[in-house]
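Record type: monomer structure entry
Structure origin: computed from sequence
Chain ID: A
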Amino acid sequence: MAKTKKYIKYTVIIALAVFSSFGLCSCYDDREMNELAYVIALGIDVSDGGGYNYTFQISNPIASGGGGEGSPNKEVTNAENEEESEENNQSSEEWDRTQIKESSNSGVMNVVVKAEDYLQAAELVNNIISKRINLSHLKVIVFSEDACREGIDRHTRFLMNEREIRPGTNVVVAEKSAEYFLKNINPKLDMSTAKYYELLINNENMNYSQAVQLRELYNRGFGEDKVDIILPLGDVSNIKKSAEFSAQNAYENEKGANRLSGEKTELFGAAVINDMKMAGSIDGNAVKYYKLIMGELKDGAVFEYHNERAVVKNRKKSDIVVDTSESFPKISITLFIETENADNSEVLKKNIEDNIYMLLIKSSREYQADIFGFSNYAKTKFLSWEKFENYNWNEEYKNSVFSVNVNLTNPEFNLSRIMAE
């Protein structure tokens, strides 16, 4: 009995010693907040002579939070842009591996480094700034079109496996360059640039662009069921003079929104990604039709054609049927759209059907990208995965025959339906 009590006593002492030692432990990478440089945006461009230019946009908490005086906003003129463009076009021997670039936004600092991959780029940045970079608050990753056409599979793997980067980080493709896009970010309504990214990209009422997160890009590019995807296109807009502005031109503009004032940067249109490479792009209006098919278009979307106008309430998802009984797929799409006002619904209906059909043909024939995920419908037609693979969907999809039918209705006031909602 005494021996048992002695054993229990020593066990308790050892346990107390072990647990008390936990208080002396800390994380291996523990840092104070004022020792970290928080990266809120990361840009990736193809560099002349090989490698990539990585733009690390680092938050300046003193300027953005009002804790002190930041440097005054500096508008970047066209002359300065041309001068910087010439500087960037220098040979690789003359190009400095690390540069701190001017920005029109005093709330951030842009550090540009030339490296073979992200890991080397992060190492270089940590070598030239006083604080260690931290990506736990990264809001957006921006690829240039050139980087996307070359292929973003390697970058996506690196970033998805980076411990500090959250899978919910948004992804954007810059029409000119990632560096140029990021340096022109200068929010007018938000003190915090990081908050501006959150509100801009995740705007639920955005009909002309598509929000995509890093996890979705990774899953659709490397998952068991690979599916092509579209990524939002970012550009720096030229503000139009009032004499050049018209609402119809703004609606039909393929490159971006036509406006008199506001933010210089915008998200308009999408890059079509096929097998983790950019196959082409679609304009903002095509993105609206894409969202209409996918059931993602928000109420209040406007469709116009020959002075006919309808404000859409899309209350029912599209009915999609994929027939694989023949060597080429037959895909029929029926859309159910309620509209508040459509004076000539037949004219507008035909126009919507034609535009959707052209989008389907362009994505399948020209880009050979199944951005709508029709393959998921096709798989249900086969009894085994082997039979589906033998059908060779990726090759046959470009030969698909499409039929589009739009049910455009203007329902009367229905009190029971409103009460049910």
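Annotation 1: The longest strand covers residues 36-46.
Annotation 2: Residues 36-65+95-282 form one domain.
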